[in-house]
Amino acid sequence: MTATEPESEPTTEPERVRLDELDGAPHAVVFEHDAPRTIRLTLDADQQLPAHRHPDTDIVCHLVEGVLDLALDDESHRLAAGDLLRFSGDREIAPTAIEDSVAVLVFAPQETD
């Protein structure tokens, strides 16, 4: 019987990104790997995205700049710079920028029982 060295766990280097250097509008991919999916959302004042869903995900929205009305089904949530909101992507989502706005959205798979 020979001694074996323990398997080393893969190491990943930290990734650093500047939001203002990302390409793409209104959506820009922040990190290239799949999970959790992270995007930068940039909307001009009065710009609105059509209502949509992200089934089977939990979403965290961090508003970095501006003011944003985020419709979730029949509810409206006004976010100001610095606010974070967590919600289910199963809900119908429709963001509207009140002023020029930048948000970071993180999409994580919902845990199943």
Automatic annotation (TrEMBL):
Q: Identify this protein by name.
A: Cupin
* Protein's organism: Halococcus thailandensis JCM 13552
Which SUPFAM superfamilies does the UniProt record give?
Answer: RmlC-like cupins
* InterPro entries xrefs: Cupin_2, RmlC-like_jellyroll, RmlC_Cupin_sf
Superkingdom, according to UniProt? Archaea
Instruction: Name the lineage.
Output: Archaea, Methanobacteriati, Methanobacteriota, Stenosarchaea group, Halobacteria
Which Pfam families does the UniProt entry name for this protein? Answer: Cupin_2
Domain Cupin type-2 as annotated: residue spans: 42-105
